[in-house]
Design a protein that fits this description.
9 helices; alpha/beta; four-stranded antiparallel β-sheet
Length: 259
Amino acid sequence: MAGAKRGYLVPEPAALARLECQEVSFAYGRKLVLDGFSFTLSQGITGLLGPNGAGKSTLLNVLATIRQPRTGTVRYDGVLGAGKDLGTVRKQLGYLPQRFDLMAGSSCLDNVTYAAWCNGVAAAQCTAAADAALELVNLGAKRKARVRTLSGGQRQRLGIACAIAHSPAFILLDEPTVGLDPAQRIDVRQHLVEIAKTACVLVSTHLVEDLAAMGADAVVIHQGHKVFQGSLADMTGVADPDVRTLEASYLALVGGSSE
C-alpha cells in the first residue's frame, strides 16, 4: 500500500529500509572511538554488542545524526545523513538513548503526541499516531495515566512509543531492556519483534540472550572496530568447539574483555 504509515501497515518491498555505514571514524579530541567502521543493515532486528567503552553509544549517536563522523559516510536508503538531506533523514529516524526524559506529570498520550509532533507529524495527525504507537507497545489502556504512575517496564515501553510514533524506517535503541526484570524484558522484546517487521531496528545491548530470544542478527564492536557481523548461529561457531555458547563466542571476539 503506497503511502502507508511504516510500522502500522506493511509497506511495499521497495519501501524496506537499508542503512549503510561506510568507513566511519569519530574521535573525542585525540581519542579515536570509531575507526573505519562499516556495515549494512536492512529490515529486522540487529543487536550491537561490545564491551563498555567499545564505541556502541557513540556509533548510535552518529547513526542518529547527533554527531557527525570525522570521516566516512552514513546513508539511509541511499540518502546521505548530512548537509541538505539531513532534515529528510531525521524524519525517518527513531532514537531512544539509554537515559531519556519523560514529562512525569503528563499522560502517556501527551508524551507520545508531543514526540510525534517534534518528529514532523502533522498536528492534526499526532493524536492518532500516538494512539497507534501506544497500542503497538501494549500501553493503550494506559493512554490517560500519568507517567509518574508507571512501572519501570511501562516507562521503557513508553520511551519506545515516543521513538516510533512518527513511523520511522530506522530505529536505534540503546540498551532498552537494561534494569528490567525478566518478565519486563520479555515484554519489551516481544514488542520490538513486532516493530521490526517493517523497520530496520538496531539494539545496543550486553544481553546476548535478548538477541537470541528475538531471532536477531549481531554486530560486535571492539575498540571502535567491527569484529563480527552475522547470525547468532555463525557467531556461536567462533568459540572453541568444546565451549560453543553465545557468551563464549562473544568473549572470544573481544579478547575476553568486559570493560
